[in-house]
Amino acid sequence: MSRILIIYTGGTIGMVRNAATGALESCNFENLVANVPELKLCGAEISAVTFDNPIDSSDMTPRHWGMMVKIISDNYDLYDGFVILHGTDTMAFTASALSFMLENLTKPVILTGSQLPIEAIRTDAKENLLTAIEIAAARDADGNAMVPEVCIFFHEELMRGNRATKISANNLAAFSSNNYPLLAHSGTEIDYHKEFIRRPSTGTFTPHYRMDPGIIIFSLFPGIRREAVEGVLRSKEIKGVIFRTYGSGNAPENGWLVELLSEAVLSGKTIVNISQCATGKVQMEKYRTGKQLLEAGIVSGRDSTVEAALTKLMFLLGENLSQEQIRCRMNESIAGEITI
Fold first, then answer.
1. What is the pTM of this model?
2. Active site annotation includes 12
3. Residues 6+ away with beta carbon under 8 Å from 228
4. What number of other Cβ atoms are within 10 A of residue 215's Cβ?
5. Structural domains in the chain plus CATH codes
6. What are the DSSP calls for 69-94, one per residue?
7. Active-site pick, 12, 88, 94, 311
8. CA nearest to 101, candidates 209, 258, 176
9. Which residues contact 192 (CB under 8 A, 6 or more apart)?
């Protein structure tokens, strides 16, 4: 049998409702296991490790990502796959971060959770958990991992982790992979789309722990004021900016805006252009309103999600690369996060 390690971080999947306040609160992993007796029948040898203090995913930080990387690294040779139970609010950020922090990954790391607690009558937790374990344990005809990358499994769909984003706070289908096909679909059987699954490299598995959070996301909107942009771009604490523009990467032709952006790039900041649209890609050369940003030294985020662009920039800054090296790497596909 495949050996699977479950890493329980917290989230709705293991929460219980406080009888006094009515609010959902984190519970322990034993409570979750007690509600899923099917774990004993799933055909895999399962072990589990839990955060000392399970957290709501709203409290997730780069320090917690490092904790997950450490657990996976310490147990990498002991298990065939890993399932991370995580709250949905920041799951796409975590999946994206881990895709960069786990270099040369050859084993499945599947993140999942639920929109309803495991104790709820209509819970989606059981299906998500059991199918995530099955995917983590799956092997091809040669005995290799079927999906050797960081993924999110949610409501019958397996997505590349750094291509997924949360799209609903209420629907059971909470995640979408807008710019990349699904890796698998779960129905009566699990149908793997092998042509879209990333093959592992031949390099040595290498964990990374440093993520530089000196980054901010800000979005354009009609009527944006110079003072707001200036406060962001001239901050000495900010090393990188995820700049959410219109359409295919366009911005208003305000002289002051291009001037501030150029100044920030020259000062050493890396600014990445990400479209506010849910689908499509940045093409700054397409219109004059985008070309001005290209000429100002803005880096194209191509078809990246905001979560992937943010965590990728955190990762590259944490590697202590030069600004030019970071600019080049942002336009390379490190873990399948952008289409070249």
1. 0.94
2. yes
3. 218
4. 20
5. 2-207 (3.40.50.1170), 215-330 (3.40.50.40)
6. HHHHHHTTTT-SEEEEE--STTHHHH
7. 12
8. 209
9. 138, 146, 147, 183, 184
